[in-house]
Amino acid sequence: MEQLIKFDDLPREVFLMKETLNRIVSILDRPAVASTPNQFNFDGLLNYLNSIGLSMSKSKQQKLTASGKIPFSKFNNRLVFNKSEIDEWIRANTIKASEESNATLSLALTANRTNRKVTQKLA
């Protein structure tokens, strides 16, 4: 039921309305906190990896998941990726710049067994 405001109460009511409006504006002006969830579904993991600068195709993620190379859990037949496990997996699979030349050499040796010239030049 709507309460009628008397003319004498108008200044006080306007003051209360202004205070309420100021509180609402201050809440709306707060910056939104961008929080990252602790768990991701399949598409959420792709978005998370892209947001931290590690782009990965959907098919690559499917292959890594199917081969068990990326940590995941299942809940009600759905894949669940834990953020802390993914972050640890990223750290464990990141090659440091000092190791990059050794990794490139290793890849060159194992990538194409028919190319014996690379092996002969290194020997």
Run of helices and strands: HEHHEEHHH
As a percent range, the share of helical residues equals: 55-70%
Gyration radius, rounded: 29 Å
How many helices? The count is 6
Strand adjacency order, main sheet:
1-3-2
> Which shape, going by the Cα principal axes?
elongated
How many β-strand stretches? 3
Main sheet properties: 3 strands, antiparallel
User: Which secondary-structure class do the elements indicate?
Assistant: mainly alpha
Question: Can you describe what's shown?
Answer:
The structure is a single chain. The protein has six helices and three strands, in the order H-E-H-H-E-E-H-H-H. It is mainly alpha-helical and 123 residues long. Among the domains are: 39-92, no CATH class; 96-123, no CATH class. The chain has a three-stranded antiparallel sheet. The protein starts with 9 loop residues before the first helix and ends with a helix. The mean pLDDT is 82.
Give the key terms.
single chain; mainly alpha; three-stranded antiparallel beta sheet; 6 helices; 8% strand; 58% helix; 123 residues
Task: Produce a short descriptive summary.
The protein is mainly alpha-helical and 123 residues long. Among the domains are: 39-92, no CATH class; 96-123, no CATH class.
Note the topology:
Elements: H1 10-29, E1 39-40, H2 42-51, H3 58-66, E2 73-75, E3 78-82, H4 83-92, H5 97-111, H6 116-122
Antiparallel strand pairs: 1-3, 2-3
